[in-house]
Structures are given as structure tokens and as C-alpha cells.
Amino acid sequence: AGSSTWSDSVWEHYTEGPVDPRYEELARQLIAELPVEIQDDPFAQALKIKLHIDENMRYTRSERHDDAPDPTADFLFGNFTGYCVHSAHAAAYLWRSVGLPARIGTGYLVEESERRGSALMVMNDAAHAWPELYLKDIGWVVLDIAPAENLDPPREPTDDEMLTALADLAR
User: Fold this and answer.
1) Residue 8: its H or E element
2) DSSP the chain
3) Closest by alpha carbon to 133, among 116, 147, 145, 146?
4) Host H or E run for residue 15
5) Dihedral angle at the C-alpha atoms of 72, 102, 19, 36, nearest 10 degrees?
6) Which of 7, 11, 83, 95 has the fewest CB atoms within 10 Å, measured from its CB?
């Protein structure tokens, strides 16, 4: 993991995490469950942690953890219910706690079906966050979280006529 060209300050930046010892304890516990021959492999470590979050997370945008001093810890060591911001930070902090360089990527996840010609309609619920791991000789690798359970109802279908009219206005 990481790059031999990074300065000490860059390494520190991408491996700095919370001081809460539970992050490292959980990460080490999960890594210890890997077969011995791959326990030292950074990708195997990161994937094991990612899969733990996948398997245990209940996704909902209604759970904010706003009143917690550490919303990520409240999510990870509490009810494991939240949305992409919580899971992305949980993965990155767990990875960082064992020395794996990580960062959070943010952007929008938009279905091709939302495109109208050259116009792409980005709805307010399309915002997304995901964790990224830096692997030597490869670069930043996205290991997006795929929660086992989604508590939110499906989004109402977008009004096709409205999308087309808005796309026409945008052009």
C-alpha cells in the first residue's frame, strides 16, 4: 500500500485516523480472520474490512448520527445504520488504523436513464461518497460499500416529461 515517492507528511495525511482505539481493534480482529498466507496483503486487509461493512450495514438516509461526538464511531460501533458518508468514513478510518492509506471520494451517482440527449439530470439524492485505498504501482482504488440491507423505500420514478422539458431548457 502507498507510494515510495510520498513524503512523510503525505503518508501521515493518508494514514491519520481517529484516536479512538476501537477502530484499530476492530480492523486487527477482522484481519486476523483472514487465512494466514494473506494476512499481510494490503488489498486482502482492505477487502476484508469492506466486506464486514457490506454485510452488517443497514442503509438509510434518515439516520444522521448528528448529535454524536464522532458520527462515524456512532455508526460503526452503534447500530450500523446510516448512509454512504458513514460507511465511507468507517472504511477509511479502519484502513488508516492499520496503516493503509485511504481517502474519501465524493461525487454523484446518476443512472444513464436520467440522460436526455446531451443533458444529464442530477437529482438531489444522487450525491455519493465512497472509500479509496492507495495500492503501490496501481494508485487509488475504489472499494465502494454495498450494504446488505436498504431500509429506504425506492425513489419515485422521475416524471419523464418534466426531465425532457428541463433538458430542453438547459440546452
Assistant:
1) helix 8-15
2) ---TT--HHHHHHHH---S-HHHHHHHHHHHHTS-GGGTT-HHHHHHHHHHHHHHH-EE-TT---TTSSSHHHHIIIII-EE-HHHHHHHHHHHHHHTT--EEEEEEE---GGGEETTEE---GGGEEEEEEEEETTTEEEE-----SEE-SPPPPPP-HHHHHHHHHHH-
3) 145
4) helix 8-15
5) 100
6) 7
Question: How many CA atoms lie within 13 Å of 147's alpha carbon, on the beta-carbon side?
Answer: 21
In whole angstroms, give the CA distance from residue 61 to residue 2: 32
Compute the distance between CA of residue 53 and CA of residue 94 in angstroms, rounded to an integer. 10
Residue whose C-alpha cell reads 450500523 in the numeric block: 80
The mean pLDDT value for 91-103 works out to 98
pLDDT digits (tens, 9 = 90+) for 9-42: 999 999 999 999 999 999 999 999 999 999 999 9
How many angstroms separate the most distant Cα atoms in the chain?
59
Whether the full predicted model's pTM is greater than 0.85, yes or no, is yes
